[in-house]
Amino acid sequence: MADRRSKFIAFMLLATSSALVPEMAWAQAAPDAAAPEGASDDIVVTARYRSESVKDVPIAITAISGASLAERQLNNLQSIATSVPSVEFRAGASNKDRTVFIRGVGTITTSPGVEPSVSTVLDGVVLTRPGQSTLDLGEVERVEVLRGPQGTLFGKNASAGVINIVTRNPTEQFSAFGEAGITSDEEYRLKAGVSGAVIPGKLLALVGGLYTKWDGNVRNLVTGNEVNGFERYGGRGKLIFTPNDDLKFTVIGDYLQSRDTVPTAIYASTSQTAYPTNVVTNSTALAGLLAGAGVVPSRDNRTISSSFDSDVRDKNFGASLTGELALGDYHVTSITAYRKWLNHQHQDFDGISTLAVGFPQGEDFGDVDSRQFSQELRLTSPKQGFIDYVLGAYYLHADTDERYQRTITTLPGPLTTVGVANYGVTNDNYALFGEANVNFTSFFRGIAGYRSTWDDVDFYHVRTSTNDPTNLGAAAPAVDRPGIRGYHNATGSTSRRGDSYRLGLQLDLGQNAQTYFTYSRGYKGPGYNVYFNMRSQLVGTAVLPLDEVPLQPETSNSYEAGIKGNTSDRSFSYALAVYSTSFDGYQANFADTVGGLQVTRLINAGSVRSRGAEADVTLRPTKGFTVDLSAAYTDAKVVNFNCPVGAAVSCNIDGQPLPFAPKVKLYGNATYRFPVTDALNLELQSDLSFRSKTQYSLSETKNTIEPAIAIWNASVAVLSSSSGWQVRAYVKNITNTSYSSFLGNGSAAGTVRFVPRDDKRYAGLLLRKDF
């Protein structure tokens, strides 16, 4: 038996070493910095719908504990992206414009007709819209980042990866927690909750809430207010009812309301650079307008001159019922969920307070009403035996209705035009899925997974304009007002079926390591580009849509090899992986120009590819001292771009990098905790993140490239080992490095930037007490 096992190991090492030599990629769990001495840092995850050690899962995965998130003040997905090198985040003025990228792949769109490529899952419930997942995390047990296609288990919007958020469970014993934080730039944060047994041994409950407020770090010179801030409050409740040893019900309800004041036009420069000619066009008119308002455009500008402050409000809430039934060694799981997301926007379209020729002023109002109902049913087999598996069925019904109004005032005149669009999408999704391990031996197994997905998508879109009162739908810019097309009335539907699957091999290298190789096919279903500023054409007396053609599904083929392990004393842990993923029918937002103003067109952009390597290493050279090092090399680029019909800008971007795909990202964190008295511990912590230059636009313009940046943070904490409290002082962005979380072309001219929370140095104080 030993000889046969050694041969298997030698064969698999030979097979994987050729892949690991040229480039490496991996991921593993970030240890819980708050764990007491001697506690295991081997985080348990549910990446395959089973509770498993993160080092045993044959997937590139990072898991961050809730305690670590709270201590480092990583309160949303945007902040998590700084500490997970394979993750990037696109900022926006509203949650509907923000999205997550994994390994350089994500979906940028404001259309409700397409789902993201990175799926966000909250307590087993897949969220259909990106805006549902970009708010405050609240109190969580852990966040898991699964990289690469995960469609066999997580569905059609997981073609690039999954963010799996697991909230905190109630405890049998009564407990409570309170957290209060304040920063030098006046951010306030409060969290509190209670947990315990309502009926001992039968009914457990947890109720928690949060409130946070920050005015912002950008000044509007017109209103005199600080903007780019937020105010959020909400709560979450969880009940676990166990009537007997074989049956358990979990009921979860949550509500979160937020208000953001993120501006749309913080000018980084008054110029734009054309691609591929690199011709620079500087707008002296824009420069004059900004100078007259007192705004100095620059890469670290934090002043605006908007007619009013942006006001974006979100309500995000839902409930789920999870039932778990043990049938001997088998388990049946049912998850029934309903969620709703309401978004209201009031934004300054142009971001310039002075009306001038060539610079129309615009005021936007938008409302989103998104609802989803889902039902999932799973059967999980015992792990003993030749085959163990998870089988399931899934149903989703999602509706999104939007109303968008834009008022444009232009010179000469002045002439004011109002356009109003009502549009929406209905999506019904059905799926059958399963994934199995075929245990050839106790240490060598095969992996096979499959999902069949059916999609029915319908949309409607009716737009009217005061500039087109007879509903002729004329498409010429001379007739339509800039930023507002004429009359538009379109409906459509499409139905498709698609396949996701995974095949792989996994080999245990003794008790403390394993290696794997997988092939995965990802699938993201069809959709429609449905948005306010769509183009139409007049053919005879009929108004026909130009841009609202059905998008074909996006598919991916991914190969990944990895190795994970640790020494027996856990003083050294590692996870390495390499991957190559190609996408066909890539669904992407293409920035075009119509009537001299920016419009976006969601299209099947063609083929793209992401190849790379990731690595995480954890060192524990002495008791209480931990060093985490993470790195990602990502080569994500366009292979073949399909230029949309009638595009006004160059589409020759083959071979160019994908947006939000820096070549190199590094993250390092060092923590040293040691006793100063019998009752008190002192913790010193510091982390550094580095990102190479990053292109923010698929149009590949040079003015939308952010240079390489490095951000250094540190904290010191005093913790009680007996009474459960800690006081932590921290500094973010110690070197006061300014950078942009997003760069884009202005509505009429120039380049605008989005300013991140840590664009300048600030300090904070955090107090936590667990009762």
Explained architecture:
This protein has five helices and 45 strands. By secondary structure, the protein is mainly beta. The strands form ten sheets. The protein has a 22-stranded antiparallel barrel. Strands 3-8-9-6-7 form a five-stranded mixed β-sheet. It has a three-stranded antiparallel β-sheet with strand order 15-44-43, with no helix packed on it. Strand 4 and strand 5 form a beta hairpin.
From the helix content, strand content and strand pairing, which structural class follows? mainly beta
**C-alpha-based Rg, rounded:** 26 Å
Overall number of strands: 45
Major beta-sheet overview: 22 strands, antiparallel, barrel
End-to-end distance? 52 Å
Estimate the mean pLDDT confidence.
86
- Low-confidence stretches at least 5 residues in length (pLDDT < 50)? 1-41, 472-483
Share of helix among residues? under 10%
**What share of the residues does DSSP label as strand, in percent?**
over 45%
Helices, by number, come to 5
Overall 3D shape: globular
Which helices and strands occur, and which strands form pairs?
Blueprint: H1 2-20, E1 44-45, E2 52-53, E3 61-65, H2 66-71, H3 77-80, E4 87-90, E5 99-102, E6 118-122, E7 125-127, E8 140-147, H4 151-154, E9 161-167, E10 175-183, E11 187-199, E12 203-220, E13 226-244, E14 247-260, E15 266-269, E16 271-273, E17 280-282, H5 284-293, E18 303-304, E19 311-327, E20 330-348, E21 361-380, E22 387-410, E23 415-439, E24 444-465, E25 488-508, E26 513-524, E27 527-528, E28 536-539, E29 542-545, E30 550-551, E31 554-566, E32 572-584, E33 587-594, E34 597-604, E35 606-622, E36 625-641, E37 664-675, E38 680-691, E39 694-695, E40 705-706, E41 709-720, E42 725-732, E43 742-745, E44 751-754, E45 762-770
Parallel strand pairs: 6-9, 12-18
Antiparallel strand pairs: 1-2, 3-8, 4-5, 6-7, 8-9, 10-11, 10-45, 11-12, 12-13, 13-14, 14-19, 15-44, 16-17, 19-20, 20-21, 21-22, 22-23, 23-24, 24-25, 25-26, 26-31, 27-30, 28-29, 31-32, 32-35, 33-34, 35-36, 36-37, 37-38, 38-41, 39-40, 41-42, 42-45, 43-44
